[in-house]
UniProtKB/TrEMBL annotation:
Keyword Metal-binding belongs to the record: yes
Highest taxon, organism lineage: Bacteria
E.C. designation(s): 2.5.1.15
PANTHER family assigned to the protein according to its UniProt record, in alphabetical order: FOLATE SYNTHESIS PROTEINS (PTHR20941), FOLIC ACID SYNTHESIS PROTEIN FOL1 (PTHR20941:SF1)
Protein name as it appears in the record: Dihydropteroate synthase
Protein's UniProt keywords contain ATP-binding: no
Residues forming coiled coils: none
Catalyzed chemical reaction(s): (7,8-dihydropterin-6-yl)methyl diphosphate + 4-aminobenzoate = 7,8-dihydropteroate + diphosphate
Record Pfam families: Pterin_bind (PF00809)
Keywords of this entry: Folate biosynthesis, Magnesium, Metal-binding, Transferase
Domain Pterin-binding: from-to ranges: 2-260
Alphabetical GO biological process terms: folic acid biosynthetic process; tetrahydrofolate biosynthetic process
């Protein structure tokens, strides 16, 4: 069964939800709604990673997300924290998070991996080649699937070296991070190879530019959120087909429905 991770962005500037959930109460209510829609995990983040976003002070990041994590964890939700900061990761785990989702794979903060090793949380190591101020500067590859697998392998080795066992490690190819839309589709075609490496794989295509680019090749103008969520639900099914552990999505209901139809199609086995 492919798990569904619902996104709770507690930021005033996230490109995909317009910062609508910037206040704690609204973020908590949004998290509850995602759980009601069937989210297995909630990914709570306070720093936008959108292209061109500026870094947020760690103290601001923590005051945005910690009350939200505490409240949702207290209600029994499984929480993941989307952060590149070791201090925030540790504080979030103390507040009840069970997973640390680091889009930089432990590269942005040299203390991250050791900090997570000292907790019992799982860690998501995402493929990343630098901060997002210049989105495509690092998007140069000879064989993108092999390079993503190789670079993630280095991050896994670094995590193991500080004592994080394989069963606590999840890898993520990082769609849109240092990759053009066309390169993202190449990574999609190699997803089964990532899964074949044996670690759990997380995939985040939700509302990303690659979907609008795919639609536009068919003459479809994909701009509305509903259309983007429909396209996302399709990628969730295809990711499930490739054997991923979980998909990270903004809108949970469409993905849950799409995955249920896939399960009926395939059978439980
Ligand atoms: N994408 C965004 C943020 N965090 N984390 C993981 N593990 N994988 C992703 O693809 C990913 C992520 C993009 O930001 P958004 O929440 O504003 O869409």
């Amino acid at each position: 069964m492919t798990l569904v991770m619902g996104v709770v962005n507690v930021t005033p500037d996230s490109f995909s939800d317009g910062g609508r959930y910037a206040s704690h109460d609204a973020a908590i209510a949004h998290g509850r709604a995602l759980v009601a829609d069937g989210a297995d995990l909630l990914d709570v983040g306070g720093e936008s990673t959108r292209p061109g976003a500026t870094r947020v002070a760690q103290s601001d990041e923590q005051s945005r997300i910690l009350p939200v994590i505490e409240a949702l964890a207290a209600e029994g939700a499984a929480i993941s924290v989307d952060t590149m900061n070791a201090g925030t990761a540790v504080a979030a785990v103390s507040a009840g998070a069970r997973v640390v989702n680091d889009v930089s794979g432990g590269l942005a903060d040299p203390d991250m991996l050791a900090a997570v090793a000292g907790t019992d949380a799982d860690i998501v190591l995402q493929h990343w080649r630098g901060h997002s101020a210049d989105m495509y500067r690092t998007a140069v590859y000879d064989d993108i699937v092999a390079e993503v697998i190789g670079e993630l392998g280095e991050r896994v080795a670094a995590a193991r070296a500080v004592g994080i066992p394989d069963h606590r490690i999840v890898i993520d190819p990082g769609f849109g991070f240092g990759k053009t839309p066309e390169q993202n589709w190449q990574v999609v075609r190699g997803l089964h190879r990532l899964v074949g490496g044996g670690h759990r794989v997380l995939v985040g295509t939700s509302r990303k530019r690659m979907l609008a680019v795919a639609a536009s090749s068919a003459g479809i103008d994909l701009t509305g959120e509903d259309d983007l969520d429909l396209a996302t639900a399709v990628t969730s099914v295809l990711a499930a087909q490739a054997g991923v552990w979980a998909v990270r999505v903004h809108e949970v209901a469409a993905t849950r429905l799409a995955l249920a139809v896939r399960t009926a199609w395939e059978g439980e086995g």
